[in-house]
Amino acid sequence: MTTIDLLRHGEAAPGVCLGARFDSPLTTEGWQRMCAIVEDGKMPWDGVASSPLIRCAAFAEELAKRHGLPLKLEPRFRELDFGEWEGESWTDLYREAGGPLLEFQRQPGRNPAPGGEHYWDFEARVGKAWGDLLDTARDRHWLLVCHAGVVRTLLRLVLGFPVGHLFSIQAPYAGLTRIEQEGGNPARLVFHGGRL
Fold it and tell me: For residue 55, which of 12, 22, 77, 137 is within the disulfide window of CB 3.0 to 4.6 Å?
């Protein structure tokens, strides 16, 4: 049995659009919420993979070092590139670019952010990284520290729901999602947005 837990990063730059290029370290609260996942001494993981963005990588690096786990920083697990929206406050974006932003959320496959990455390109890179991670983690239990867009996309790939439903899924800060795969069988969702 291969088990991979997806851990969305904690809060970073509250109220701002964070993507593949605009990065920010975790807030104190964001760091504490991530630490709470492993605070009680439970350490089920055999390895850690992470997006290289600081809001994911800093925690992943510390966790792996503290517990002597292998660490794989994987650029293909970066968040979607939101182009001109990155670094802008969500309040300003909804006021100034409300129409295009809502259209992106309704149909991300047809409505990329201005100057941003097309959703299908994002899904392709995340999907390839996911396949490689399943091979790396075969018959073991790994942790992937990543972003809301990566969590939603992996759930879409596992569950097969339409792309227009991506934003129907909440991906909470420091929320844990577990996916398992046994042998050549399709991967399955065990839980989403939970805790150990």
Answer: 12
Question: What tokens were used for 59?
Answer: 């925690």
Instruction: Show the CA angle centred on residue 185, arms to residues 183 and 191, nearest 5°.
Output: 100
Mean pLDDT across 85-109: 93
- Note if the pTM is more than 0.85: yes
Closest by Cα among 16, 18, 146 to 72: 146
| Residue whose tokens read 């839980």 | 191
Q: Output the CA–CA distances (angstroms, integers) from residue 181 to 1, 69, 74, in the order listed.
A: 6, 21, 20
CA atoms within 13 A on the CB side of 39: 9
Q: Domain of 167?
A: 2-194
Q: How many CB atoms lie within 10 A of CB 89?
A: 14
H or E segment and range at residue 154:
helix 148-159
| Number of structural domains the chain divides into | 1
- As a whole number of angstroms, the distance between CA 36 and CA 32 comes to 6
H/E element holding 179?
strand 176-181
Report the CATH number that the domain containing residue 86 is assigned in CATH: 3.40.50.1240
What proportion of the chain, given as a percentage, has pLDDT over 70?
99
Continuous segment of H or E residues that includes residue 192 = strand 188-194
